[in-house]
Design a protein that fits this description.
Layout (H helix, E strand, L loop, with lengths): L2 H17 L1 H20 L4 H17 L1 H15 L2 E5 L2 H12 L4 E3 L3 H6 L1 H7 L4 E3 L2 H9 L15 H12 L8 H18 L2 E4 L3 E3 L5 E5 L3 H7 L3 E7 L3 E2 L5 H12 L7 E5 L7 E2 L5 E2 L5 E7 L3 H5 L15 H4 L2 H6 L14 H9 L1 H5 L10 H5 L6 H14 L23 H7 L1 H10 L3 H7 L1 H11 L15 H8 L10 E6 L2 H5 L2 H13 L2 E4 L8 H5 L3 H20 L3 E4 L2 H14 L2 H9 L1 E3 H10 L14 E5 L2 H5 L3 H10 L3 E4 L18 H14 L9 E4 L2 H10 L15
Parallel strand pairs: 1-12, 2-3, 2-4, 4-7, 5-8, 7-12, 13-14, 13-15, 15-16, 17-18, 17-19
Antiparallel strand pairs: 5-6, 6-9, 10-11
Length: 728
């Protein structure tokens, strides 16, 4: 990416932070809070997700068969099914059916995808969106910024100003009730006058041809029942085998998207219906001549079905949980974190599949791979992996001109042409080795103004961000000279402490603390010379390099695993690699063996104490006041409770942040185009650690990124929680 492109992206993000960020943040937080509360009330939340996942897997596997089945069902009912190859094909058919007649629409992202409004209007039809948010955007001539709440970026005041300016009503509109009533009356007339109603479909049952529409306003029912012709537009992936299969999705979709136990309207149509319609004079007439057309759209989906890496995208039920749970999306919305149609984490898969990789490339880097969205997805889609794969494909499609700046310094397994910034951050382990070897000179050089200016211009490393300071003596070298202090024959357990790149070369103090804490609990520790886990290159879409790193790490840890000993990890994102991503990077046997024997340091300390280790061997916290922030992937792995339990048992008075992301996200916060966004996300966390109750507390955080961000934004230095337990 050129300097100009970085500046343009930074300016765009800065603009959205200033104009739309507050509204997006407030509204997504409401959705998130509602989702946590609503899903907690389910008896078997994970079981429902497993059931929904299984249905989607089965559907996509049998999709050609189910398409034949739904065609037969709809045609038996008297309707028509049209299979459209792409957007142009769908629009040609829809425009022909509409025949220039006025059209009223309920909300449909698929209709946004094919840009059907433009096609209909070009044919002379008058087209109106009847969903309130879509109506607002139609009047404003703006694209949606959210899959479920398309006008989430607009405040009530902005909408009032828009309506007052555009419609010039007799009475000035101000309150939400006034705005809603105005839209209802205005659109009610349009619905009565229209002859064609268009809807999407959340689900379509193949056995009966029944459409399931999940809405909050009831406008979809009006569009269907008050018009002569109903056109339903949906992607082929919206099929489910039977009506019975709707149950888990009905339970999950509203809870996942907006935090409601159930939406206001769940409508099941088995069209064509026979309710009366309005004639040209507004009088009721017979409805037995109503037409129904189901337009099922491929537009790249069948190709996605054959793509092992993008296939999971088709399991998406468009709930937006991935967007709502994403810190970056919460601060800029879909006008930055989105492509031609779709927004949020899953948007990368959709955009790459239906619009092409160029569309996905515009926002793909906003996914930092934190994995928080995975636990929120009702069909358990591995969204970070889809983003990583697409990023890898984007990398491989580029030719680079500045590779000479890092060639030789950053040898890796990926082809040339990768953006020089990504190649730099993807090889942090190599850079850290060099920085450590030449420390403290390397630290002094990188702090100079000329060096920072050069790095910003050529590598996109923001000069406002402090760089890591490398230690001359790595953790591995320190341990080699020090040795183990616990006899393996007398030890309670034997472990290998994994030396991630940051712990090994930058924050060695937390690694040394981990060693001393484990030894105090009678654990024999070894620190093998294992390299980068693959997290750094994976975050840049350098999958081949990540796989090579994973293989090397496993080779270094294999003797420990084979001996039945444990692997303890300080950095949560590296444990997440062992527990999650290595499934895709290593042979199954190696992955399962390492997963079963690897633990986060505070989780491991908790386990030792629960199994008889003497807590008196650790320092007494003396009711020291602590403010603790848990790393994203530590929360995803559900490890936060172990840290809190250990600190409490050791006598610390601990309060925690409920902010789920610090905003640093590895290398993300160093990149000049994302610096303002990173800080904006981080300020939310800072606010929680500068209250009357937290301002004087010792700040601790589990993740490297969190520590770097907190150090940058707070006036007091943060530490890893294991350092509170250090016996030295």
């Amino acid at each position: 990416m050129s300097v100009d492109n970085r500046q343009q992206k930074a300016e765009h993000i800065r603009h959205l932070l200033e104009t739309e960020g507050n509204s997006v943040h407030e509204n997504t937080q409401v959705f998130n809070d509602g989702r946590y509360e609503s899903t907690a009330n389910l008896d078997d939340y994970d079981g429902l997700k497993d059931e929904a996942r299984a249905i989607k897997e089965d559907t996509i596997e049998r999709l050609p068969e189910l398409l034949d089945q739904v065609i037969e069902a709809v045609e038996t009912n008297g309707g028509t099914v049209y299979l459209a190859d792409d957007a142009a094909d769908a629009n040609q058919y829809i425009t022909k059916v509409a025949g220039g007649r006025d059209v009223v629409k309920s909300k449909s992202m698929t209709s946004e995808e094919i840009e059907v409004n433009e096609s209909l209007e070009a044919s002379g039809a008058d087209v109106w969106e009847t969903d309130l948010a879509e109506f607002v955007l139609q009047v404003a001539d703006e694209a949606p910024s959210h899959i479920v709440a398309p006008a989430i970026h607009k405040s009530r005041e902005e909408i009032a100003n828009l309506f007052n300016t555009h419609f010039d009503p007799e009475e000035h509109l101000e309150t939400a009730e006034e705005l809603t009533q105005f839209a209802r009356e205005y659109l009610g007339e349009k619905i009565i006058d229209a002859e064609v109603g268009m809807t999407g479909a959340n689900f379509i049952t193949a056995d009966t041809g029944t459409l399931a529409l999940v809405t909050s306003e009831g406008n979809a029912r009006k569009c269907v029942q008050a018009t002569d012709t109903h056109i339903a537009v949906a992607g082929v992936e919206k099929l489910v085998p039977s009506v019975e299969d709707l149950q888990p999705f009905v339970e999950l979709i509203a809870r996942s998207g907006t935090g409601q136990d159930i939406t206001s309207y769940i409508s099941l149509f088995t069209p064509p219906g026979d309710s009366p319609t309005f004639d040209e004079g507004g009088e009721l007439g017979p409805g037995d001549d109503r037409e129904f057309h189901l337009v099922l759209i491929d537009n790249g989906r069948m190709e996605m079905r054959e793509d092992d890496q993008l296939r999971e995208t088709l399991y998406c039920i468009r709930c937006s949980a991935c967007a709502n749970s994403c810190a970056n999306f919460q601060h800029v919305g879909g006008h930055a974190f989105g492509g031609e149609t779709y927004s949020g984490g899953i948007a990368t898969g959709w955009e790459a599949g239906v619009h092409g990789q160029d569309s996905a490339a515009e926002f793909n880097d906003l996914c930092t791979g934190c994995s928080r969205c995975v636990n929120q997805c009702p069909t358990k889609i591995d969204i970070p992996w889809i983003n990583t794969v697409v990023r890898d494909r984007i990398n491989r499609g580029k030719d680079g001109n500045l590779d000479f700046l890092v060639e030789g310094l950053t040898p890796d397994e990926d082809p040339g042409g990768i953006d020089v910034q990504k190649r730099l951050f993807g090889n942090f382990d190599t850079l850290a080795k060099l920085g450590s070897a030449f420390a403290p000179l390397s630290n002094w050089v990188t702090r100079t103004d000329p060096a920072r200016s050069l790095m910003e211009k050529t590598l996109g490393v923001d000069s406002r961000r402090d760089l890591p300071e490398f230690e001359r003596e790595s953790l591995v070298k320190w341990f080699e000279s020090r040795g183990s202090r616990v006899d393996p024959d007398e030890a309670r357990r034997q472990v290998a402490l994994y030396p991630d790149a940051y712990t090994n070369y930058v924050r060695t103090e937390r690694g040394k603390a981990a060693v001393r804490v484990l030894e105090a609990l009678d654990v024999c520790v070894d620190i093998p010379a294992a390299g980068e886990s693959g997290r750094a290159p994976l975050s840049q879409g350098m999958v081949a390099t990540a796989q090579s790193n994973a293989e090397d790490v496993y080779d270094a840890l294999a003797p420990t695993v084979a001996a039945g000993h444990d692997v303890v990890v300080v950095e949560p994102s590296d444990l997440a690699m062992f527990q999650r991503e290595y499934e895709r990077l290593l042979p199954e046997h190696d992955y399962t063996a390492l997963k079963a024997n690897s633990y986060e340091i505070m989780e491991y300390v908790y386990g030792l104490l629960e199994n008889g280790a003497d807590i008196d061997a650790l320092p007494d916290g003396g009711n020291e006041r602590v403010a603790y922030h848990s790393h994203c992937q530590q929360r995803t792995l559900n490890l936060e409770p172990y840290t809190l339990a250990v600190l409490e048992d050791c006598g610390f008075d601990t309060t925690t942040s409920d902010v789920e992301c610090c905003g640093m996200a590895g290398s993300f916060g160093y990149k000049s185009e994302y610096y303002e966004l990173s800080v904006d996300v981080g300020e939310t966390l800072v606010d929680q650690f500068t209250t009357e109750d937290t301002a004087d507390r010792t700040v601790v955080a589990s993740g490297t990124s969190c520590l770097e961000q907190l150090d940058a934004l707070l006036t007091r230095r943060a530490a890893h929680p294991v350092r509170l337990l250090d016996t030295q």
